[in-house]
Structure formats: C-alpha cells, structure tokens
Amino acid sequence: MKTKLIKNAKIVNEDTIFNGDVLIEGDYIKQIGEFISPKSADVQVYDAEGKYLLPGVIDDQVHFREPGLTHKGNIETESRAAIAGGITSFIEMPNTNPQSTTIEKLEEKFDIAAKTSSANYSFMFGGTNDNLDEILKVDKTKVAGLKLFLGSSTGNMLVDNPEVLEKIFESTDMVISVHCEDEGTIKSNLKDHLDKFGDDIPIKYHPIIRSEEACYISSSKAIELAKKTGARLHVFHLSTGKETSLFTNKIPLAEKKITAEVCIHHLWFSDEDYDKKGTLIKWNPAVKTKSDRDQLWEALLDDRIDVIATDHAPHTKEEKNNVYTSAPSGGPLVQHALPAMLEMFHKEKISLEKIVEKMCHNPSILFQVEKRGYIKEGYFADLVLVDLNNPWTVTQDNILYKCGWSPFEGATFKSRITHTFLNGTLVYHNAKFNDVKAAKRLTFNR
Fold it and tell me: Where is the Amidohydrolase-related domain (predicted)?
C-alpha cells in the first residue's frame, strides 16, 4: 500500500481555503494538517506549491453512449476525458441502446464500466410507462437514482401517462431526476417553423421552438406532482430564468425535497452565440437568452440552484453538421467543464469555494454518495490539483473526446488541471495518463 503526501497545497473545502498537506494511505485520505512530515523514505511526495487542491468533481449527468451508440463515444474514451478535466465520478444516463430500463441491462452497463472506466461510476435507472415493477427492484444503495424523460426522450422513454407518472412518484424514495420540456408545446412550435422554413430551420430559432414556455410548463407540473406525492425530485439542466422561481434557498440542501441543476453550456453560452457556433451548441433544453443566463447565475449563487453538471452528450461532427431537423442535440463537455468554471472565477463571477460546493460537495449531498466530494479524513482520496496561472488553448490536438470536437475549441483557459488522484492513485499528470485501474463503483448512504 503506497503512501502519498501532497505538500504545500491551497486546499479548497467546505467554504474555506487554507494552506496544508494531505496524507493518503491506500484509497483514503489519512490525515490533513498544516505540516505533515513523511515518516519513511517510501512516501511519495508531491509538492503542490502555488497550486489549489480541490475534491474530485462529481458530474451527476453524462451520456457516454455505451452500449449501442459507441461511434459517438464510449465509457472508456469519455471517462478518460473526464479525468483530464478533474471529474473523478460520473452518473450516466439510461438512454443508450438498449436502454437501461431493466435490472439486467443496467447491470450490463456496470460490467462494462468495471472493465473500462477511468473514473468512478454509477448509472441512472430509466423509467418508462410500463416498467414500474423493474423500478421497484432497484437497490438504492448501489444505483444513483431514477431518470424520467418528461420531454425530449429517445426510444420509448417518454413518460407521458399521468397515472403512471404519479404511481412512480408515489412508489420510490430514490432521487427522481427529470428532463422537463413539454412535448405538445414543442411540437406546435416546430410545426410553425417547418411550415415557414422546411427542414433547414435557422438554428437561432431553436430556443423559440424549445421555448421558455415548454420548459416552465413541464418543470412546474413535475414540481406540483412531487409536492403532492412527497417524492424526492431533482430537475436537470434548468435553462430559463422563469424556472428559477420554482426553487427555494430557504432550507439546507440535505433537507430539500425538490432540487435543481444547471449545466455548463447554459452558464457560458447564450442565443447570441448561435450565429458563430451553429448546431455545435444545439442542446435540449436550448441555450436561451442572455437574460436567462444571467438569471441562472443569480439562482446558482443564491442557492436556489444546487448543482453544476455537464449533460455531456457527444455526437460526431458529421451528425452535428446536418440541417436543423436532422442535427442531434447535445455536445461533449466533461474535459472542459471545470476549466470553464475556473475561467468564471477569474472573471470574478464565482468563488473557488462556490465552484467546489456546486460541483463536488452538493452532488455528494444530493445523491448521498458515500465518502466522496470532500477533502476529509476517512474519505476516498479523489483529488484534483489545479494551477490557476497556466494558460492553454482548446485545439483539436488536445481534445480527448471520441467525437473529436468541442464547443470550446479556440477558447483559452487560464487554469489547468495538473494532477488527478482517483481513490488515492495518481491517474493523470501534466496531460499524461497513468494507465492503472483505480475506478470504483459508487455506493450511496441510503
């Protein structure tokens, strides 16, 4: 069991920044202190002078495309990109092919991840209109939660039967994570634009087709149902300012029954970027106005929004370059999410402590992830060292996604992830991977 010592770090944890050392034994953090001396010559020492030490990021929403869609990405390639971006744990979505809507198919994905993932992993179980019996079999200590598509589904995963939806909400105490867009509103808006433009609808109309109204109708209904049934509801990827009024900051996160997430792209881009980025920033829900973005930031900083995630969802460049109706929604983000948020720190938009709260601590609290998301003695040593003054530019040469592109291509970030430790093992250092198997299946304190 190799002992490691990180010296002279600026440790960011639980709303404080302090200078200190971290001793790692095996998978765990053994000791945190102002000055820790190596007790033997066998201790591997890492001098973090001038760098900041963060807990590994927990990304609560990714699509790694395996099984069935692996020309876009797979667990192996996308988890490596995540590690390079300081994301040490991910929760992956069920809309693969086949979908994770039975226990058998869910466990097949866990088997793949056990063999190939570079980061700690868990998966959402997918709900449908007819799989309640399977939902009730899920072991809530070993599975992150339940995902329901209340809009923008793939396959048969749109849950649009009100009676079934209410029964699911009543029947489980797992976290129910939802994609909220009203299908009827979107279909009506799309028809209007198809009548006017045909299939080649200008991308700038995407946030008008997948409108504020579509988002608000769906999310408000989901919240109303959660209040009626007492369900534990988590609303994914808020994209509108109007929706932020549905959430509260009056109680601690651990006591909230209804929580919210915002994604990197909705904090970074606005509809002003469609002319330049085109379908590369086509997401569902859509990137909307600058005003929406400003209101999302406000709600994030005042704690109505609890978590920052990526909704990492790669497609090939060829797929994205199709006309509007054929270009899929989604884009790759795990490698660049933390650098993007650190860029917002440099712009004085958010503090380092708040970044760690929203990307590390709060996903751990919300999903009750066991011994991760903090720099604490006795916790798993998932740690990230960051140099805040080491600029680099996103280019095709350094993009790690299987799809080979990024919406951030050409952007220069001031901050760089220099080291990623996973369960006490150094797995990434100065743009190089140490090809050792250190990833573990996430477990949950429930």
Answer: 52-427
Taking only the tens place, the pLDDT of each residue in 81-113 is 999 999 999 999 999 999 999 999 999 999 999
CA separation for the pair 2, 41 (Å, rounded): 11
- In this prediction the pTM is 0.97
Determine how β-strand 28-33 pairs with β-strand 16-25.
Answer: antiparallel
Q: How far is CA 243 from CA 180, 260, 402, in A?
A: 10, 10, 34
Structural domains of the chain, ranges and CATH numbers in brackets: 57-367 (3.20.20.140)
Q: In this structure, are residues 136 and 168 in contact, taking their beta carbons and an 8 Å threshold? A: no
Question: Would you state the structure tokens that stand for residue 198, as one six-digit string?
Answer: 């045909």
Q: Label the pairing between strands 52-55 and 3-13.
A: parallel
Whole-number Cα distances in Å, 219 to 25, 98, 182, 409 = 45, 27, 9, 32
Give φ, ψ of 411 to 5 degrees. -75, 145
Closest CA to 255 of 365, 160, 121, 103: 365
To the query of whether residue 59 is one of the catalytic residues in this protein, the response is no
The residue from 21, 311, 382, 387 that is catalytic is 311
